[in-house]
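User: Here's a chain of 402 residues. Predict its fold as tokens.
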Amino acid sequence: MNPLLDQLQPYPFEKLRMLFADVTPNVAYKPISLGIGEPKHPTPAFIRQALADNLDGLASYPNTAGSDGLRKAIAGWLERRYQLPALDSATQILPVSGSREALFALAQTVVDPSDRDALVMCPNPFYQIYEGAAYLSGAQPYFVNSDANRNFAPDYSNVPEAIWARVKLLYLCSPGNPTGAVLNLDDWKELFALSDRYGFVIAADECYSEIYFKTEAPLGSLEAAHRLGRHNYPRLITFSSLSKRSNVPGMRSGFVAGDASILKKFLLYRTYHGAAMSPSVQSASIAAWNDETHVAENRAKYIAKFQQVTPILQEVLEVSLPDAGFYLWAKVDKYTTLSDVDFAKRLYAEYNVTVLPGSYLARDAHGTNPGQSRIRMALVAEVEECLEAAQRIVKFVRGLQT
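Assistant: Prediction complete.
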């Protein structure tokens, strides 16, 4: 067996399952889960119809590189969304079966397995795929803690030069999971300068980019590179998907875009390993990428939901509206003495509401776990259910106080 598998930690939801294993939740309450970031808004009817209208595609083997039509639809969306000059859809775009598998697989392409000193840099807290990708590529993860004083952006200023010299791949997530933080142009300028100096590849996970709460849409990595005059996007690969944008997590449809020289190698890797996207799903994906009306409607539902739920939770938790995404990243120790783990366990037992302990999404690094004393709440259900969950959380905390 591959010994590198022994380095993997249980996934956060497996940890949560083990935490709840001996708990019987209060049957007086209907279960509500804010634990998993799975979109619950209905899939738009036109996407469902596009899938149904193209079921003949099931009779054909898909091309790993995807169809010309899909790549051009993705390129068109990127150009419109981020005000980019024309992209070469044949060399700078690659459809993938969801951003998750592509985020994992990129490390296998970028990291030299013979380099025993290789590091993969990850934000902390983070999406656990980054860590697994590091270990199974033969590298070691190096965690950079987010800083609440910097809008939860990772603080790279204290990373030693000797560490930077070993970094081959840097993962980041903007808008962030779980914090909802969006990197600004100065943040990207700093990262690009470090990439130029040390030669590492940047993997920019942007799957939450279309759910935001300000009038200005989140800055994207390709957009930042273009503004800073970085033509052809050297050592930069961005990842996105339809799951959150279009409420189709089951379609497993996303893309990678950026540096054509890296994507050429990534396509070679994927012809052996990657899951090629069904032609039927490709047709539905084209329809989704070409439409913005449903995206604006989806975003409006999240805005209304967060505007109602956040003030209720602010009565008992230290929490604020994020820049983007569909999570609330709340501190639980302002009004309680419970740890994040105990908070989640007791809330589930007493009020049948599931939240994810923040420490499950982070690692002990540099003397601290930046997820400690925090919980992540995914406001993915319809507004009524989220409001009910918030009201139960208020009752729970106030009960602790008395």
